[in-house]
Design a protein that fits this description.
The complex is a heterodimer. Chain A is built from four helices and three strands, in the order H-E-H-H-E-E-H. Chain A is α+β, with helices and mostly antiparallel strands. Chain A has a three-stranded antiparallel sheet. In chain A, a hairpin with a 2-residue loop joins strand 2 (about 60-65) and strand 3. The radius of gyration of chain A is 16 Å and the shape is elongated. Strand 1 (about 30) of chain A pairs antiparallel with strand 1 of chain B.
Chain lengths: ~100, ~200
């Protein structure tokens, strides 16, 4: 396979934190903000920025509720996000395969 | 993007997915609690039988199994809040055990009460359903000991058929010890040691 046939990696996903968030969400129904923060190692502000970017792209759904008196932010992946993630993964695999066949 | 970078990203994605799956797989504490409760219920049943208090046996089971259900529901709620993530595996397993719980209730109480069959084959039916629950849970969480536990319960159900009805429920004791308690203790130790479950 020539490199020309390989599509570009989605720039929305192509970031360490956003890739980590989508990888977690692809394996789960939903994840809380605190869990994502712990697993990605991002700060509150940094993670919020990345989540907003994913939300604006329609890749994740952010729900803000309350658990008792504490605010609770829950994030889940959308169908569009799932498709984009799968496409991203396929592109990565294409890159690995194409480089192998060189 | 270079091949090495792409390969590294794929590895990173797999690692994140696997860690998410593992972090939600649980500590095995449910298995330990249910093993203890079932053992108490079996001992209670035989004590009641010894005193010829047959009419109270149903209450013995209702009390201990009811306690188990309450404990499981409260613990599951707390665990989900603590974990901060809900995986498809968790949902599937909770549906599986809920369905098996209903099956236990129908096979162990409702059908005998309705006169469909006597109390004699109850242990056999319960053992078959417990085997399904353990085997499928083991498959979903990749807990091999649970799969073996499921197989053990199925073998036990066949053994029960050849046992006198009065001692049939005693076959449950080794099944509970090796099918519930042992995997529960093993996974609980791993969970405490590593902070999460690791595949054996």
């Amino acid at each position: 396979m020539s490199p020309e046939t390989i599509p570009e990696l989605d720039p929305v996903i192509h970031s360490q934190v956003r890739l980590a968030v989508l990888s977690i969400l692809i394996a789960s129904e939903s994840a809380e903000f605190g869990y994502l923060k712990e697993r990605t190692g991002a700060t509150d502000g940094n993670l919020s920025v990345h989540l907003t970017k994913l939300e604006k792209s329609g890749f994740v759904l952010i729900r803000k509720t309350f658990s008792g008196k504490k605010p609770l932010t829950t994030v889940s992946i959308t169908e569009k996000g799932r498709e984009a993630f799968e496409k991203y993964l396929k592109t990565l695999e294409q890159i690995v395969r194409s480089e192998k066949s060189k | 993007m270079e091949k090495d970078q792409a390969y590294e990203e794929i590895r990173y994605i797999r690692d994140m997915i696997e860690k998410t799956r593992r972090s939600a797989a649980g500590s095995g504490s449910y298995l330990i609690i249910w093993a203890v409760l079932v053992m108490i219920a079996i001992i209670g049943m035989h004590v009641l039988e010894a005193f010829k208090l047959y009419n109270w046996i149903w209450l013995d089971w209702i009390v201990w199994m009811g306690l188990g259900v309450v404990f499981t529901m409260v613990s599951a709620f707390r665990a989900q809040r603590k974990n901060g993530v809900r995986t498809y595996a968790m949902t599937t397993v909770s549906y599986l055990w809920s369905a098996c719980g209903v099956a236990f209730l129908l096979l162990g109480f409702v059908f005998p009460l309705l006169g469909l069959y006597s109390w004699e084959p109850i242990s056999v039916f319960i053992s078959v359903v417990a085997g399904v629950a353990l085997f499928v849970s083991g498959g979903i969480f990749h807990w091999n000991l649970l799969k073996w536990g499921g197989l053990l319960f199925w073998v036990g159900s066949v053994v029960m058929v050849f046992c006198p009805a009065e001692i049939r429920s005693l076959v449950f004791i080794p099944l509970i010890l090796f099918g519930y308690l042992l995997p529960g203790i093993v996974y609980n130790r791993k969970y405490r040691t590593h902070g999460e479950r690791h595949e054996s």
